[in-house]
Every structure is written in C-alpha cells, then in structure tokens.
Amino acid sequence: MTTNPLAATTSSSSIMAPTIDRQGYWGRPTSTLDWCEENYVVSFYIAEFWNTVSNLIMILPPICGAIQTFRDGLEFRYVCSFLGLAAVGVGSWCFHMTLLYEMQLLDELPMIYSTCVFVYCLYECFKQENSLSLFPIAILLIFSVSVTVVYLQWKEPVFHQVMYGALVACLVMRSIFIVTWVYPWLRPLCYTSLSIFMLGFLLWNIDNIFCDSLRASRQTLPPGVGVVTQFHAWWHIFTGLGSYLHILLSLQIRSTYLKYRPKVKFLCGVWPTLHIEPQKTS
C-alpha cells in the first residue's frame, strides 16, 4: 500500500539475501521489488507472511466502512473511498504473497487510483450535495492514466513513489487548511491520521535502510520477538489505519458542511466508525 491514503508499499532499496530466502509455491520472484522480510520462512505458500497478513487492516475495516456509508445514504464517492482502500489491501496481499510482477502492479496502481478518489472527495467537500465536478475528475483521470502508461513502460519504483507522494502531499495540505481555517474542532482527528501515517512512513524507511541489520537480528531473536522487527508489516498497519482515519475525516467534513450530524463511535470501544444521524427538523 501500498499506501494509499494513504496504500501503499514500495521501495527501491530492498535487498534479497539468498542465504536466508527460500523457494516457495510461487517460484522465483519476478517483481521489481523484494522486501526485507525473508521469503517463504513461515509458509511455503506465502512469500512474505507478515507483510501479507498485515494487509487485513486495509481490507476488513474499509469494507465495513463502505457498507455503513452506503446504509447511511451518503454520496457514492465515499463508498468508493473505502472500497479503494480495500482494493489496495487486496492488491498488497497478492503482491506480498507471490512477489510476482503482475501482483505488484495490482498493489501499486490502485494506490494511485484510490488516492485520486481521496483527493477528489477532500477538494470537492464544499459543493452542493450529489454534484459532480467534471474538471477535477478529468484532471485526476488524466493523471491516473498517465502514471499508469509511464509506469508500465518505465518500471522504476521511484517514479511510482514520487507520484504517490505528490497525491499524499495534496491531501496533507488540503486537510491542514480545512482544520486550520474552516473546522478547527477536527484538528485532533486530522493530526492523529497524519501522525499515524507518518509513523508508518518512518518504519518503512527504517526497514529499507537497515534491512541487513534487521535480518541479522532476526537470526538471534526468539521468533515471537523477531516478528516485531517486520517494519514493512507495521507500515501496512499504520498507513492502513491512517488512511482509514483520513476517510473518516473527509466524511465528517462533508457531512458537517451538508448539515448532517456526524458522530464518531468506537466499535468494541476501540475501532472508530462514523455514523450519520438525520438532520434536526425545526
């Protein structure tokens, strides 16, 4: 999540260690990236076990969020936001399970597409209900198609990362503007989302830069402790949660502008969900 807000899930500096990695069900990796988790250590059928199962946080909660949003009768763009995040989770699951190039694209390209949906929702949050703005849709569509075409021809992960980072930067700037000048009471949710996402990004970089040291430490640590050093899996968890909270923020901004009564509730006292109460009648 590849991350995307905010997926996804790539790096240009991951290094394979043949003395540690094993061969498994999906054969030799064909992806342009191979992460720091040792291949086929936990399961013969899953190349990177912890990097795979950690995507559940980007699959199950967004699906529930999409169902709740649909039931509340909110605009379809927000259903698409939740489903887009779930699509990134599914793609990332397939990528890390197989390390095949086709599955890598299934991870990385949905990160671009879903984040474009996030951008549209946040930049069009102060418009008439159920309205469509064709110009930003056209711009985002052209951007998505252009990134796809270029990336299919130029298989350079850094290009994908820069394009994804540009979209995330747009989200960050817009979010900070809204909670600074329009709805200041939403600052805690906004900054919590950003902080969690940035924590994931920090761990992603640590995983890439110190991969050799992390792999060496796992050879001496007990298995249960070594799992904690799978920082790319933590990247999935934190960016998945941060992206989910961003969608809640976007929904709360939109529903507040439309004069609904959004209310954050915690499932089992832990997981945040947004419920929209009917408008008060005079």
Automatic annotation (TrEMBL):
Catalytic activity annotation: an N-acylsphing-4-enine + H2O = sphing-4-enine + a fatty acid; an N-acylsphinganine + H2O = sphinganine + a fatty acid; N-(9Z-octadecenoyl)-sphing-4-enine + H2O = sphing-4-enine + (9Z)-octadecenoate
Cofactor: Zn(2+)
One Gene Ontology term of the molecular function aspect: N-acylsphingosine amidohydrolase activity
Keyword rRNA-binding: no
List of residues binding Zn(2+): 96, 232, 236
Signal peptide: none
Function description: Hydrolyzes the sphingolipid ceramide into sphingosine and free fatty acid.
Family per similarity comment: Belongs to the alkaline ceramidase family.
Annotated protein name in UniProt: Alkaline ceramidase
Gene source species: Seriola lalandi dorsalis
Classification of source organism: Eukaryota, Metazoa, Chordata, Craniata, Vertebrata
